[in-house]
Amino acid sequence: MSNTQFIETNETVIVTSGSAYIDIDVLACSLALSYLHRLCGIESIACHTGKMNGTIPESVKVEVYDLFEKTLPCSGRFKYALVDVSNPRYFESFVDHEKIIEVYDHHFGFEKYWKDKLGKFVQISHVGSCATLIWEKYVKLEKVHQLPESIAKLLYLAIVSNTLNLKAFVTTDRDIEAKIGIEKLGFFESELITEYYSHIEYQLLNDFKNVLLNDVKTHDWKGEDCFIGQLEMLDSEEIIETYFLTGTATKYIKDKYATNGQLWFVVISDIKKGYNFIFTENKKTKRLIERNFSFTFDGNFAKSDRLWMRKEFIRDMS
User: Fold this and answer.
1) Roughly how many angstroms between the first and final C-alpha of the chain, as a whole number?
2) How far is CA 299 from CA 84, 237, 262, in A?
3) What distance in Å separates the CA atoms of residue 286 and residue 164, rounded to the nearest whole number?
4) Model's pTM, two decimal places?
5) What is the chain's pLDDT, residue by residue, as a tens digit (318 residues)?
6) Are 87 and 217 in contact (CB under 8 A)?
7) Are strands 224-233 and 263-270 parallel, antiparallel or unpaired?
8) Residue 288 backbone phi and psi in degrees, to 5
9) What is the residue-wise DSSP string for 107-119?
């Protein structure tokens, strides 16, 4: 293996991400990258302490549960590769920052820091999904035909989820090419995407509280913490009627996060309609959203001009 592709090391590489939770992009990237390391002769494992969130169907959770470690191994010498995260504030607590050798991310803000630190072993690009970056690594190393079907499926669904099936504004030509490339492997039936979102919506309807609360991010807005939830589905009508119009979603958010009147909102992506509903009952949050994004609230809902991802809101919150 040439050190132009990976830093050469005799230590085990722990592939990991943020500590809050595991979403479909994190799961796909960590399993795919650790598998690629092993294909290239590097001892590598994926390790995450957080819980898998609502972007991962229950059937997938069962399939992959034994494919990653839930705690850092008790002994050994380790290096670290990070996927879908580059802000040190959110790293798993077990990560030794001085032993990080790779970073793959599609979030904003820490590009220069990591490029200065690790140079060519950093891939931070503004693509829709981090899974696109890992797929491109397989292509570059000519390893795509050694990719197991289970991991190819995860990479595919991560791209679908993180680009709202290529309809989100964050989608790039690279995401499109990656999705097409994985399709050409011939693993999947055409119904896979519909099945994926059907499973996601089933989980939402049957375990709404946990799905909502396990995917909330905190971001500083005007010097205050703002709690931001995210739900993605083909059709949001039933979820909105059942949980948002009844005040149930508000109660869950306020009880766990915005206990003292803090800023909060939920981004509800409706893929069929091609736009978002932005929901909050917090008056100050409404004013900030209207000023910052020029969306107008009608009651507790504002409607976006297109499909936005939560990461886009976070990027543009000023």
Assistant:
1) 45
2) 35, 17, 19
3) 25
4) 0.88
5) 344 578 888 999 999 999 988 999 999 999 999 999 999 999 999 999 999 998 999 989 999 999 999 999 988 899 999 999 999 999 999 999 999 999 999 988 899 999 999 999 999 999 999 999 999 999 999 999 999 999 999 999 999 999 999 999 999 999 999 999 999 999 887 789 999 999 999 999 999 999 999 889 999 999 999 999 999 999 999 999 999 999 999 999 999 999 999 999 999 999 999 999 999 999 999 999 999 999 999 999 999 999 998 988 998 998
6) no
7) parallel
8) -65, -40
9) -SS-HHHHHHHHG
Token digits of residue 7: 């830093």
Tokens encoding 298? 């009608």
Task: Give the position of tokens 């909105």.
Answer: 240
Token pair recorded at residue 172: 């790039």
